[in-house]
Amino acid sequence: MSAPHAHRWVVDEPDIPFAMPVLYEDAAIIVVDKPHFLATMPRGMWYRQTALMRLRERYDDPRITPAHRLDRATAGVLVFVRDPAARGAYQTMFQERRVVKTYECAAPLAIPARPATGTVSRLAPPRPFPLERRSRIVKTRGVLQARETRGAVNAETRIERAQRLGHAADGTPIARYVLTPRTGKTHQLRVHMNALGLPIVGDDLYPRVEERAWDDFGRPLELVARRLEFTDPLNGQTRVFTSRVPLPQG
């Protein structure tokens, strides 16, 4: 009989050829800089080539568990819990949104459009940025895209435009944007940027679904979970972790 936590190795699973550096570790947690294209946990065709299974294999520890998740397409700071006794404290911290998350993305350098639903509030008028985008986002199981609908707001994002980055592959001028989500709906940042007429560079879901081969690594979603800050639930220390994954410079 196999051990209860034995790895289900998939012999013919495709390789994701990107490293996953460890940014920090102690007895309770491991913080990694997840690359684009690597899922957080096993799903569909991906098992061994996921952040979780890479860590379990690297540390030979089946008890490692994610404290939160990042989409496969999104790179950046990702926290795992290695001490089972601390698992609840860290996962609850994320669930209760006691973590300050800052993302960066590359998107068109343009004046934001007026979305059909929800609100856009300029925070430093007459400047278009920073702004606050508020809307209702609904994600139907089995449907790739999330959508915005009329109704009670459940998604809020602060968006600031930073420096110009150059041009996308199609010649579009692009800039770096700093995104601070106040909620955590599925695809929230991608949906909000697209609704403003500023779809994130490399997005294969918004504004339209694009079919791509699993090994098409040339067009990553240029969205990075750049910074996480929180008060450690075990010792009260302030923790700040920063991703080193670059955005394109054009």
UniProtKB/TrEMBL annotation:
GO molecular function, one term: catalytic activity, acting on RNA
Stored InterPro entries: PsdUridine_synth_cat_dom_sf (IPR020103), PsdUridine_synth_RluA-like_CS (IPR006224), PsdUridine_synth_RsuA/RluA (IPR006145), RluA_PseudoU_synthase (IPR050188)
All copies of domain Pseudouridine synthase RsuA/RluA-like, residue ranges: 29-195
Reaction catalysed by this enzyme: a uridine in RNA = a pseudouridine in RNA
One Pfam family of this chain: PseudoU_synth_2
GO BP, sorted A to Z: enzyme-directed rRNA pseudouridine synthesis
Official protein name in the record: RNA pseudouridylate synthase
Taxonomic placement: Bacteria, Bacillati, Actinomycetota, Actinomycetes, Bifidobacteriales
